[in-house]
Structures are given as C-alpha cells and as structure tokens.
Predict the 3D structure of the following.
Amino acid sequence: MAIQDKKLSCLDCGVPNCYRKEGSFPQFCLTTNTNDEEFEEANELYQSDEFVAKFSLAAAEIEGAYYGKLTRVEEIIVFAKQIGAQKIGIATCGALINEAKIFAKILEAKGLESYGVSCKVGSTDKTKVGVPETSKVKAGCHESLCNPVMQAKLLNKEKTDLNVIVGLCVGHDSIFIKYSEAPVTTLITKDKVLVHNPAAALYASGHYYKRLLKGGDI
C-alpha cells in the first residue's frame, strides 16, 4: 500500500490530545472525524449496559486511587472485590502451574476463593483433534493437547465470578475467552523467550530485536 493511500489512525498520532485536551487534534484524528452518533451510542453503554457500567466504574476508580502503586496481582484482587467477585477461576498453562499456585495462595490470603484448571486437562493427544504427528513439539510420543475449551467449561461449571489467564498460548487464550461465561482478565501473558515479558521485544526493537522491523516473514 502506498503511503499516500494509508488510512491514518491513532498509531500515526504524535499529539495525544484526546487525554487531557491540552493541545490540538491532528486533521486525521478519530475523535474529531468519527460521527458523533457513534460516540453517543458507545457512551450510552456505560450507562445502560449493567456489565459495562459496573466494570468501567470499578476500573476507573482503581486507576484513580492506585495509579502506579499496585502490581497487576494486587489490581486484580482489588478489582475482583470492587465488582463483588468472590470465586476466581484460574486458567493456567501447565508450565506455569507453580505461578498459578502462588497466585491462588495470595487470593486466599486476601479472602477470595479460587479454582484452577490446567491447559492439559483431559490429557488428550494432539492427533485426536487432527494435529499431525509432525506438528508436535516431540513427535512419536503422547503429547497432550492444550484444551482451553475444556478449561472454560470446567470453570463455567464451577460458576466462577471472574476468570484469570495465567500464561495461555497465543490463540488458546482467544478460545478460552470465547467460551468463558465469566468475564476474563490476564495476569501473565506467555513469552517463553522473554520470560513472559513480551513488551521487551518492543523495547529492544531498536537494537537486539532489529530484525522485527525488517520486511518478510519472521
């Protein structure tokens, strides 16, 4: 796509005037170029939709009271209590079960109940759902499928109030969110190379990870 044909978005903005309105909006700004009716429809949901109203208010109050003061573990606990959640579901990667156990202990210490389900629940071999043997990490042996659908169903069965993702793989997290009946937030985003700190690749794109900015496949 030619540069002149590119539709500009917030990613092209160098003046984030939309936050405190201390400057001016660029000509392509989505705030000034989106139909007012669309904003009115969206804003109405913060009043008319019980879920949106409850969660947005809780999130805003926590941001205002604790900005830069709490870890994400603490924020999840405060948020859970703010929305009246008592039973926290933990959808964990099998490789991060120890982290999930620590999180569960912290939840218990703060007066919250937890129930966790590992991604390998069911111990179903990958080939049973059509994954070829050659696509396994280690071919020629049993290798269990990550099962986010079953994780969601088991947490649904437990009637959890809020579900927390602990390190589910890219794609598996999307499936879990789709089938979870309880609202979902994330504690840990898996990145095996960067010790679960995926933002490090962005911060290092100017030196160690320059290859990310080159064209072509990874």
In short: The longest strand covers residues 87-92.
